Amino acid sequence: MIRPFFYRLASVAGMAFCLSLPAMASAGNSHTGDASNPPVIVQKNVVAATPTNGFSSELERGAYLAKAGDCIACHRGNSVTAPPYAGGYAIASPMGSIVSPNISPSKTAGIGNYSEQEFSRAIRKGIRKDGAYLYPAMPYTAYAGLNDKDIHALYVYFMQGVAPVDEKPQAVTKLSFPFNIRLLMSGWNLLFLHDKPFKNNPKVSDEINRGHYLVDTLAHCSTCHSPRNFFMAESSRRYLTGAAVGGWYAPNITPDETEGIGSWSEEEIARYLKTGHVNGKAQAAGSMAEAIEYSLRFLSDADLRAMAAYLKTVAPQNLTGAKQSRFSFETRTPVHMVDIEPVTSRTAAAMSDSGSVDGQLLYENACASCHGRNGEGTADHFYPSLNHNSATGGLVADNLIMTILNGIERKTNDGIAGMPAYSDELNDSQIAAIANYVLTRFGNKAIAPISAQQVADFRANKSDPALLMKMMPWLLSGAGFVFVVIIILGYFRIKGLFHRRRSN
Amino acid sequence: MPEYPKPSEKSESPRRQFLKIAGLSAGSAIAAGSAPLLAESKNDDERVQDQFYQISTFLTGHSDLDRGLSNRALAALTAADANFTTKFQTLQQAILTEKVSDPSLLRTSPIGQNEDLMATAKAVVSAWYLGYAGEPAIHAMEDNAHFITYSGALMYRPTMDATVIPSYARGAPSYWVNPPASIKQD
To answer: Looking at residue A47, what is its pLDDT?
Structure first.
């Protein structure tokens, strides 16, 4: 199991290399400085509608905040029976796997020896108790905005509400050079970690402030939904305008009417966050399904409404020039019965041949039993319509292909939503054929036909690597070249010195 | 040849449409030498298809049968029985002669005494209801059964409000624990 959105996210470790030389000096300083001067707890920025309301204790509130922060999604073990927060879950990255550590309060294997200041520094600044830098697979750039009161509640929960697990994960994080040098992250943090606590905007309602706080800190929505710059840091200018993450596409969730979710009501947004499903609009898959399963569905209705209310106030942006909302594509023409039920050969050889690449035939056999022969889904919307569906109407077919390949399993408060994975049932050409049939029939016909090679890349989770990763061999050889030049120059300099001395 | 009603009085018959198209494309037809011959045989096929559609709507009592499936049913029945065209045309003539106005009256009419005619009528009706023609063999690789349609078979229609065509989902898993809403009208 891979948590795919970190695939790309984790490659942020790469950017540090470019920054390392200028930033290294200040890095060491800021790190020791932090260790000797732990942050002072200041009680401010406490939002009026804090979730203290309704919680009987700080511990209970901390447990809720840990849910909202989706800590368990990464800090779980590899097996379903692993105790909570035991760690060991491998987050795949192009440089190697980043293994989540044990964050149970074990004094030997977990964070049991962390003081509240050290705990706060790990969450908000991405620095471990021993001073080592965390990779931004840990969304500390988002958690940096957490207020002190919430950090305190989280600390109380992790120290008192979680059972200690005295066993470290067996796997360890091993990244390729130069990404294995954790200190490199200091340079990146210097540029991209804005570690200022969240500030209320006095011009908007308490509810919107509360939603803003949740969206930007604990729920860390922008981690996936904001595109990243050259150094793999989130672009604040293109906040929540959509980005590719580990094969999936986290779409534009600004309130733009065509490209974003402007056509959604606040109630629909809140319902989506709770269930992962809004009839005739979208269903959560991939990382979003996980976010709902592990985190969002446990949030209070008031908090979900607050998040929805805030999302409606974000600056609407249409960067791709989309002209039709991804929720609005549809085909009303029913298909002809004779076409969808062709007379096929009934010889044994023909019937055992499973190599067809006829998109319609494959759709009828693999998809129509649930999604309907006209893509209408079932009347109760449990099996969603493929018309009016963000997976078929988007500007890219990433989520459609990924869903066919990997299926869906989303635990919600209303039960489990599921679709089988077809990666073992259908080959790349067949999945491409189905995707093309679905797109041309129910979805966005403007999407260029999907090739078998594209499906193969999605299957291998070979998303287009970040520019920085592509450039890494050049940067490394460039650094090597500079190093060799320095050696040669040094050699001649020393030789010259000797020469001069001898001639003297 | 007996007169028989046109499929639809309002729209042009396929035959007329064909003639029009053939007339317009006369140039290419001449170029293609054999085209007049082709047109002749196509007209015959279409006429038989029209006849079969007529007898199908009469015998099943469904006026909304699918034209494409009708042609396919005719092909399947002909494949299962080479004399089928003659047989159903004889039956059609008999229905006209006996002025049978409703399929339920067939059995009590003189046609009901004619085993051959009744067998033909049953072949047509069962093809529409079962979705295949001929006899499927259970334990053999080869048989003379011919596929017409799966989900278009008429047998699914009467309970469509409450049951599914096997293999198609009607709703979320376990949807069936709740009785269908339409049961009150049954």
So the answer is: 44
The answer to whether A351 faces chain B, any CB pair under 8 Å, is no
Contact A378 B169 (CB under 8 A): yes
Across the A:B interface, residue pairs with CB atoms under 8 Å apart total 49
Same domain, A57 and A191: yes
What is the rounded CA–CA span in Å between residue A421 and residue A442? Answer: 21
A341: nearest CB among B152, B170, B172: B152
Q: Read off the pLDDT of each residue in B157-177 and give the average, rounded to a whole number.
A: 89
Q: Are residues A407 and A279 in the same domain?
A: no
A320 token code pair: 């791709």
Indicate whether A346 and A279 sit together in one domain: no
> Do the Cβ atoms of B76 and B127 come closer than 8 Å?
yes
- Residues A304, A420: one domain? no
**Domain of residue A346, CATH code:** 1.10.760.10
Contacts of A380 in chain B (CB under 8 A): 171-172, 175
A221 marked ligand binding residue: yes
User: How many domains are there within chain A?
Assistant: 2
> A321 exposed, middle or buried (CB, 10 Å; 0-12, 13-18, 19+)?
exposed
Q: Is residue A69 situated within a structural domain?
A: yes
A336 touches chain B (CB under 8 A): yes
The structure tokens listed for A380 are 């109760």
CB atoms B171 and A378 under 8 Å: yes
The nearest alpha carbon in chain B to A378 belongs to: B171
Report the distance separating Cα B94 and Cα B119, nearest Å.
Answer: 14
**pTM passes above 0.80:** no
Q: Which of A341, A348, A415 sits opposite B150 (nearest CB)?
A: A341
CA distance B168 to chain A (A): 4
Q: Tell whether A258 and A398 lie within a shared domain.
A: no
Nearest 5°: the CA angle A441, A442, A448 is 70
Q: Do B141 and A382 touch (CB under 8 A)?
A: no
Tokens encoding A417: 């939503």
- Contact by Cβ (8 Å): A158, A106: no
Q: What is the pLDDT of residue A185?
A: 84
CA distance B116 to chain A (A): 29
- Give me the residue from B72, B147, B170 closest to A378, CB to CB: B170
Contacts of B95 (CB under 8 A, 6+ apart): B55, B58, B106, B111
Residue A480 inside a domain? The answer is no
Check the annotation: does A74 bind a ligand. yes
The pLDDT tens digits for A159-204 are: 999 999 999 998 888 887 777 888 888 888 888 887 678 889 999 9
A288 and A347 inside one domain: no
The chain B residue lying nearest A364, using CA atoms, is B168
Which residue, chain included where needed, has tokens 């795919």? Answer: A4
The boundaries of the domain holding residue A403 are 337-459
